[in-house]
């Protein structure tokens, strides 16, 4: 069916509409053989709080952006090659239900659908697209992925030293290797993680010591890649940026 739609006028028109919704700031999306499989609003778990994002699933990429005007305008376009994607279901917990992890070498995050049926459809379609791509290319599934960041609201104190409390002065930071929320003194070092950046990125002291000695696998977070509790509001919920989509610390 995908091959049949690839060069159809209806598919070309649909992709053109998506391009126009992102405006001049978005990347061109129309290429030979690309098919728009589906689209919809998913709740993305960002570092401060869950936020609605518009997602578009193509047969080779996953695209998402901020909703400016519903079904008419989006910005901050993100394009994820599906060949590098793996997904894992997340157990329901509190208000966060029907979720799964989208994991890639450069960025990993959790999303939630409105219903269990929508979750199942999204996961099935993504898995099918990834499987078809890998089958055609002969490549193997990616076994490397960036850590899923722990939301700010899950840490009132540094997750490494367990002492430093977060305040407007003592800001939250995220280790790019394990995803933990850490204080400045516990994350002063930087290390080159080629899959995430061409420049050294912030990591916690614990991960730095392990990476420096070559114990890469031991550096993985001891915390499960699923969220065991719903984000809670906090009077001192102060972080170094507003959204993990644009984070630098």
Automatic annotation (TrEMBL):
UniProt cross-references to PANTHER family, sorted A to Z: PLECKSTRIN HOMOLOGY DOMAIN-CONTAINING FAMILY F MEMBER 2, PLECKSTRIN HOMOLOGY DOMAIN-CONTAINING FAMILY F MEMBER 2-RELATED
Gene Ontology CC terms: early endosome membrane; endoplasmic reticulum
Membrane topology, as annotated: Peripheral membrane protein
Domain of life: Eukaryota
Record organism: Acrocephalus arundinaceus (Great reed-warbler)
Protein name as annotated: Pleckstrin homology domain-containing family F member 2
Recorded GO MF terms: phosphatidylinositol binding; zinc ion binding
SMART domains per record: FYVE, PH
Domain (PH): residue spans on this chain: 35-131
Keywords noted in UniProt: Endoplasmic reticulum, Endosome, Membrane, Metal-binding, Protein transport, Transport, Zinc, Zinc-finger
GO biological process per UniProt: endosome organization; endosome to lysosome transport; protein transport
Localization per record: Early endosome membrane; Endoplasmic reticulum
Biased composition (Low complexity): 224-237
Domain FYVE-type: 152-212
Segments of this protein annotated with the region Disordered: 220-249
UniProt function note: May play a role in early endosome fusion upstream of RAB5, hence regulating receptor trafficking and fluid-phase transport. Enhances cellular sensitivity to TNF-induced apoptosis.
Biased composition (Acidic residues): 238-249
């Amino acid at each position: 069916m995908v091959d049949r739609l690839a060069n159809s006028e209806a598919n070309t028109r649909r992709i053109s509409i998506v391009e126009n919704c992102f405006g001049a700031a978005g990347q061109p999306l129309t290429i030979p053989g690309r098919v728009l499989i589906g689209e919809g609003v998913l709740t993305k778990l960002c570092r401060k709080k869950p936020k609605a994002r518009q997602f578009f699933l193509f047969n080779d990429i996953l695209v998402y952006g901020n909703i400016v005007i519903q079904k008419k305008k989006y910005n901050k376009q993100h394009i994820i090659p599906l060949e590098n994607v793996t997904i894992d279901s997340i157990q329901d917990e509190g208000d966060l239900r029907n979720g799964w992890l989208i994991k890639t070498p450069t960025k990993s995050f959790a999303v939630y659908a409105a219903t269990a049926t929508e979750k199942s459809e999204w996961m099935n379609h993504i898995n099918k697209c990834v499987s078809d791509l890998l089958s055609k290319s002969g490549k193997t599934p990616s076994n490397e992925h960036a850590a899923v960041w722990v939301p700010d609201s899950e840490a009132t104190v540094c997750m490494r030293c367990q002492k430093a409390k977060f305040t407007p002065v003592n800001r939250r930071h995220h280790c790019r290797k394990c995803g933990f929320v850490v204080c400045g003194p516990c994350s002063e070092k930087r290390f080159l993680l080629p899959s995430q950046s061409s420049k050294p990125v912030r990591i916690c002291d614990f991960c730095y010591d392990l990476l420096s000695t070559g114990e890469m696998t031991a550096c993985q977070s001891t915390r499960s890649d699923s969220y065991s509790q719903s984000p809670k509001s906090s009077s001192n919920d102060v972080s170094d940026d507003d959204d993990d989509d644009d984070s630098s610390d």
